[in-house]
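Hey all, quick one. A colleague (J.T.) asked me to put the IBS job into the tracker so the inputs and the structure tokens live in one place instead of scattered across chat threads. No bug as far as I know, just bookkeeping. Sequence used:
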Amino acid sequence: APGPRLGEDMEAYVLRPALRGRTMQCRISRDKRGVDKGMFPFYYLYLDAAEGQKHFLLAGRKRKRSKTSNYLISLDPTDLSRDGDNFVGKVRSNVLGTKFTIFDNGVNPERKNFIPETARIREELGAVCYETNVLGFRGPRKMTVIIPEINAQNQRIRIQPQNEQESLLSRLQRGARQGLVLLQNKAPSWSNESGAYVLNFHGRVTRASVKNFQIVHPDDRELLGTGLPGPGLEGRGMSGRELLPPSALELFSRQGRARVIAKP
Ligand SMILES: O=C(CO)COP(=O)(O)O[C@H]1[C@H](O)[C@H](O)[C@@H](OP(=O)(O)O)[C@H](OP(=O)(O)O)[C@H]1O
């Protein structure tokens, strides 16, 4: 897909769903160097464009004082402040770190100082649930991704919960799936030969990793959206449905336990 045009409104660009039938191939690099980057690394998202060009899109970093995993996403790699102009959204987990929600930069309506007349209620752009499996942490985890439907005009359905009960995760919990698209990670199969779980990444995997996953639609397991870390920890994500903030996808993939390798 073509990269952003010069002078394009980058906030609108990164929030716009990918066009149907188009593949957006991205990569994520992680910077763990430096004093506290082991605990709070930086993530940088790039779009791979024609002629080998890379377009910087987003930067992310785990925030230091939150009780839950809370990753801030910014348009500017040098400005990851929560109240900065470049703040475009965040990824927040539940207390257990098993469920994540991606918000834009709107306001939580349950905040005490929320003023409906002036503040825009935040949108939920997606959510991911990890289910531990019967094998405990030894087997591959099951990942369910929930995104709002994209209409025929390629616009995302607005999900702006007034309260927790209207959130994507609560709707998933009670089976209220109207206006939602549910995706899952493709279950790897056990290979006695390699002594590991395998999935066919069509030559794109260079190393066995718990971060290798393929997101598919349950009704069409061959239509892949894939998040893959490359050799230098640079992930390459392809999301056929929507340009989720893949730095968020990179973060999600860190929750898995079982290594998934490419089918020989
Ligand atoms: O204990 C908790 C209940 O689950 C959460 O505690 P914590 O993880 O520290 O998160 C709270 C922090 O103040 C965080 O800075 C806020 O995000 P913000 O700075 O982006 O506003 C967040 O606002 P929220 O995401 O809930 O709107 C708050 O909920």
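Adding what we noticed when we looked at it: Residues 226-259 have pLDDT under 50 and may be disordered. The pocket of IBS is lined by residues 66-68, 70, 82, 90, 92, 95, 108 (CB under 6 Å).
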